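Late entry, written up from scratch paper. The run itself happened at the end of the previous shift, but nothing got recorded in the book at the time, so transcribing now.
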Amino acid sequence: MLENAYKQLPDVGEETKRFQIPRVDSMLQGNQTIIRNFAQIAEALRRDPKHLLKYFTREFATPGGFDGTRATFQSKKYPRLIESKLEAYVKEYVLCKECKKPDTKLVKEDRITFLKCDACGAKSPVKSIK
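Output as recorded:
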């Protein structure tokens, strides 16, 4: 019976990641940095673009704006720096602290923001972005 059960199991191939962050498509224009696929990145992370923009403007210490699809920052920021800040954002505000899965959402209770995992049910506080 065990052999029959093994035969009915699907073949296990290489595991592929279902959560992939799009590469940052940025360009420098004078003293401005433009991230052309900002809305696509926010959608892939399942986060509000305003929250992501607020994080970047705080980390870059520069004013920024969002026009629906792209973000503009008022200083030169190179792609490697943008990628590293995006990875830090994902680690802090997207991935569950317990199970490391991206199935999370930000929930605000009173004045504290929590990262609530839909996969394992864990709830952990995160730094608020001022």
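The chain has two domains: 25-94, 95-130.
(Scratch paper discarded after transcription.)
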